Here is the input.
Amino acid sequence: MNWKRFAIKFADLKDQATYNQINKVFGYLVDFPMKSYSNPGFTSTKAELIYQWTLTISEEDISEKTKISILSDAIDDLLSNEDDKVAMKNIIAKPQEEKEVIIKEVIKYIEKDASISDVSVQIDEYLPITFFDPKNDEFRERTVQAYQSNYTI
Here is the structure.
């Protein structure tokens, strides 16, 4: 997911919350301090605050699912316009859904085209998975976009 792009879109909706609300919401959603990032020229301190918090969360050493959950809660708590809430949640939910579909498709492909057992892979963003296909006596590679999880095929 392009976190900077999402952060800018989220920050554009700044007028639906006060500066103090933004700090309070992110303050109770996370237990780590906000980091400072160079911004794309915000003139609003509220927009800059949302941008900083969003990028801080995006770079924290937590699962993608947790990041999405935190930002989904922030969207609910900070945005009053229901259409904006839905639009922002769709932005952060879509990559996760696509990743899960891709994983399932790769696993189906591997199970169908190759006799593989006891292969454990750590799947991460755009990770190439290499496996041996005994039917064709060759190694195959597929690139998979997915959240961090262990899969045994």
User: Anything to note?
Assistant: The helical segments are 3-11, 19-29, 45-59, 64-78, 82-113. The radius of gyration is 19 Å. The chain has five helices and four strands. The CA atoms of residues 114 and 134 lie 6 Å apart.
